[in-house]
Amino acid sequence: MTATMTDTPPPAAPKADTERGRSGRSVGQILMIVAGALLLVAAVRVITGSNQLTSEGQVSAALGLAVPIGLAGLAGLWSERSGVVNIGLEGMMILGTFGAGWIGWQSNPWLGLLCGIGFGVLGGLVHAVATITFGVDHIVSGVAVNLLALGTTQYLAKIFFSEGKAADAGGNPKQSPPVDSLPNIDVPGLSDGLKSLENHHWFLISDIAGILGGLVTDLSVVTLFAVLLFIGSWWLLWRTSFGLRLRSCGENPIAAESLGVNVYRYKYAAVAVSGGLAGLGGAFLALVTSHTYLEAQTGGRGYIGLAAMIFGNWRPGGLAMGAGLFGYSDALQLRNGGETVHALLLLLVVLLVAMAGWKLYKKAHWQGGISLMVGAGVLVWYLVTDEVPNDFVGATPYVVTLLVLSLSAQRLRMPKADGMRYRKGQGK
């Protein structure tokens, strides 16, 4: 992303599509990384005795917390792939929480879900009009959308929830009346069998059972819908002519226009979809997480979703991994407190030492030395304490966000025209 507005660069000569090479690794390499991470976490669990690290409850909670972050990140991906920076995701999520709570308690949660998406689309269109039609700086417009959404929902909540039937049903100026639950899906036989394996606390086997159990137990239908959205977004953006045209608007809109692409139309479509996805993430918080609209319910998840998108290098797969990581760290501090987070210090020591070794191998001696010193400090902290203070536990998701972004910054490659001003007719 870029915080400043610059004009779109002149069209460049077409180049071969090397994004796959820039963005990362093959499927086999990714599977090896996942397997290595699983072995490392399993070893830490056995050494520390912190069985909650890979328990079914931990994974299930992490999945529930990752969904709104992932949807916000997917919303940012759609927008930024078209060349529009969308820092207004937080505001669009806020609109989604209000729309879902407002309609949900009056009718049913399904209509509330649709209304949450619709409110998010409205927020996206406001951002689109400002940035695409009028050329407003994308960051300024995004901040304005966040402030406007917060003020509007606070005002509307006082009107609709503080008196009459809403007040009698439990509403007040800061929250809506309770909304009925959306259905959950379970796999009884499989869930029970995996739970039995997990309870044996065997190395790796119980860890895999706990992770799989969390992924098939008590799943919300919105979670399954979110998974389909990730798969569908990948297919649509990277396997169709529509996606190629949309991504070309984010890489070089002047060249795209010269080839007959209606750049405005594709940008508007992408930002509207972005708003709808962010609204869906907000609706998830209102209908699945808490069953009611609450003021300040999003808690900065729109910004964390942007961080997950950047960590994923503007790709759905990496974004999903980033959202899962942030959801997992959030679930740790909410469910288990200082003792389980303390066990992660040992995992952090191993990662820092590994990073130091890699930096030293690459002859980056200064960075390698710093990693070793930080690793030694964390090891001392782990050895002399039994748990992490609650103040640090609450900051776990945000510390993870900063660490992940700092470690992944060197391999990032955003769309070339992301955040740049484009005026219709430049390609003629």
**Radius of gyration based on Cα positions:** 23 Å
Tell me the strand percentage band.
Answer: under 5%
Main structural class: mainly alpha
* Low-confidence runs: 1-6, 10-23
**CA-CA gap between termini:** 27 Å
> Which strand order spans the largest sheet, edge to edge or round the barrel?
1-2
Principal-axis shape equals: globular
pLDDT averaged residue by residue: 86
The tally of helices reads 19
- The tally of strands reads 2
H/E topology pattern: HHHHHHHEHHEHHHHHHHHHH
Estimate percent helicity. Answer: over 70%
Largest sheet: 2 strands, antiparallel
Quick tags:
single chain; 428 residues; mainly alpha; two-stranded antiparallel sheet; 19 helices; 71% helix; globular; disordered N terminus
How would you describe the overall organization of this protein?
The protein has 428 residues and is an all-alpha fold. The protein is 71% helix and 1% strand. It contains 19 helices and 2 strands. The protein has helices spanning 19-23, 27-48, 56-81, 89-106, 109-133, 138-160, 164-168, 188-199, 205-216, 221-239, 241-251, 253-258, 263-289, 301-311, 316-335, 337-361, 365-384, 390-394, 396-408; strands at residues 184-185, 219-220. A two-stranded antiparallel sheet has the order 1-2. Helix 3 (56-81) runs parallel beside helix 10, helix 4 runs antiparallel to helix 5 and helix 4 (89-106) crosses helix 13. The protein is globular and about 60 Å long. It starts with 18 loop residues before the first helix and ends in a 20-residue tail after the last helix. The relative contact order is 0.18. The model is unreliable at 1-6 and 10-23 (pLDDT under 50).
